[in-house]
Amino acid sequence: MKKNFVVQITRIVAMFMIIICHLVQEFENQYIQMTSQFFNVGVFIFIFISGYLYGAKKIESPKKWLIDRFFKIMIPVYIFMIFIFELEIFRGHNFQIKSVFIYLFDLQFIFGGVLGAQHLWFLTVIMLCYMLTPILYRNKEKLLKNHKIILFIIAVLAVGLSYVQQDVGRTFMYIWLYVSAYMYRNHKTDKQKSKVVLVLSIVGLFIIRIVTRAFLDGTILYNTIVVCFTQILLSYNIYWFLNEMFRNVKVENNILINHLDTISYYVYITHIMFMTGPVRTMGLTKNMFVNSVVSIGLAWVTGILLDRISRGVMRKVK
């Protein structure tokens, strides 16, 4: 299947943004740390890409499709968690058997994760979005006809539920992004967008975050509603900007792009254990540049290793 070069670039950008988000939090300078609130948009970009890509997929067997999606995202997690749990036991930490079941059934967003794998909450959310996809596919025509009303209802639910339980509200906002990207794929046109306007939009959204944080930080209005909706808009604008930058680029089988695109998910899984996890290398020396290079390099190497092991296990499973 021919790969979408713009989507590949967007996925790679999202991967690096997530890594940088965790990286800058290790610096002592508070202004450098604050940039993490922009870079964590990488998670939202991943959700956008998933909705965008599956908006064009046919689902002949919902059961088979969901099983395939589950094993595709969870087999690498199972392999990674075996290592993390063994490391916990080896280091004499208080290992809890319930953690095994939490990750086995992809429930870490609900019940919390363990050190080195706390960032995998995202997989609970994306699997929930995948479970909705066959429903979206089966009712695609009705949804597209009433997409504005549907998205408005989800947005209202997200805002309202944020004041009841913030994690529930965030979940509905992630769903809003996924569903909107799914519908966008079926509604989108090739109409060009101004690069200048897109850059100004990205900068403007970042400024909105800084200003609202100064006055509303710590409130539900900022922490959940403003943060999530500005990140959603940022993910769209970043995709549109990259689309305008690379839409006319003719690339056939670019080795570097294909490689980074292929390992992006696996590097996402492994990188945090070198940033803040049980094999932390960010405190390896007093030089943050050296620590950063070593940590990213190890994430890249272990990502490649996890990719290859996962492919071997997947072949056995199939």
Structural commentary:
By secondary structure, the protein is mainly alpha-helical. The chain contains 15 helices and no strands. α1 (5-24) runs parallel beside α14 (255-275). The longest helix is centred in the C-terminal third of the chain and has 30 residues, at 288-317. The protein is globular and about 55 Å long. The chain starts with a helix and ends with a helix. The mean pLDDT is 90.
What is the helix content? over 70%
Ends distance = 20 Å
How many β strands by DSSP?
A: 0
Number of helices: 15
General form: globular
In round numbers, the mean pLDDT is: 90
- Subunit arrangement of the protein: single chain
Low-confidence stretches: none
Structural class: mainly alpha
Q: How much beta, percentage-wise? A: under 5%
Instruction: Report the biggest beta sheet as strand number plus sense, adding barrel if it closes.
Output: none
* CA radius of gyration: 20 Å
- The succession of helices and strands, N to C, reads HHHHHHHHHHHHHHH
